Amino acid sequence: MGKDNQPSAMEIDDPKSANSDQIVPKFSINVLQLLKSAQMQHGLRHGDYTRYRRYCTARLRRLYKSLKFTHGRGKYSKRNITESTVTDVRFLHVLLYSSERAWSHAMEKRQLPDGPNARQRIYLIGRLRKAVKWATLFSQLCAIKADSRTSLEAEAYASYMKGNLLFEQDQNWDVALMNFKSARAVYEELGKYGDLDNQVLCRERVEELEPSIRYCLHKVGQSNLQASELLNIGDMEGPALDLFKSKLEV
């Protein structure tokens, strides 16, 4: 009877038996690389935000289906993604592509031939708010569930989206500036590590953020930048610059 109560050698040597509840896997997403690849392959190489938005919608549909995280048939039943929900990295992808879909929808409205009218602009800002909401949740859950690099990238992405919203609203230029600077600082730091492709992508994003930072400095009165110089900045290319260019056109 005494032997029956003794733990086996396998149970003693197996680290999972004692620490299985303490081992929490950290997910990893190369956020910038993932998004840049998706954007360039699905429309944004040519500034086609409608195509990219449709890609994000299709991608989300596939993610929901593969995760069996659908919202019911017939009547819509909302299901929130929380810390306890994220048992698979694909849940983080859902949040990221939800933000991208809302952002690309806003940019689609921004590109209307005569520009958005008052009603469309309200809708556009609503889409940017939604993008900020998803990006913020993505950043918060990455801080808990992902590795440090992914968490940093998610934080930079959320800061960038917040900066975009304030930039479009023409208000709180100092807060917009703080968010763009925060995103730039992260990409500058991440650009020092990883493979060459990653370093190039981070440097490109830093360069794309620079015009928005300079414009914000101009708006808060911390720059002597002239209007003609702003137009020269707009000669650069990249999805991160499209909102800035549309602001210059206005």
From TrEMBL:
<dbReference type="Pfam" id="PF16969">
    <property type="entry name" value="SRP68"/>
</dbReference>
<dbReference type="InterPro" id="IPR026258">
    <property type="entry name" value="SRP68"/>
</dbReference>
<dbReference type="InterPro" id="IPR034652">
    <property type="entry name" value="SRP68-RBD"/>
</dbReference>
<comment type="similarity">
    <text>Belongs to the SRP68 family.</text>
</comment>
<protein>
    <recommendedName>
        <fullName>Signal recognition particle subunit SRP68</fullName>
    </recommendedName>
</protein>
<keyword id="KW-0733">Signal recognition particle</keyword>
<keyword id="KW-0687">Ribonucleoprotein</keyword>
<keyword id="KW-0963">Cytoplasm</keyword>
<keyword id="KW-0694">RNA-binding</keyword>
<dbReference type="InterPro" id="IPR038253">
    <property type="entry name" value="SRP68_N_sf"/>
</dbReference>
<keyword id="KW-0539">Nucleus</keyword>
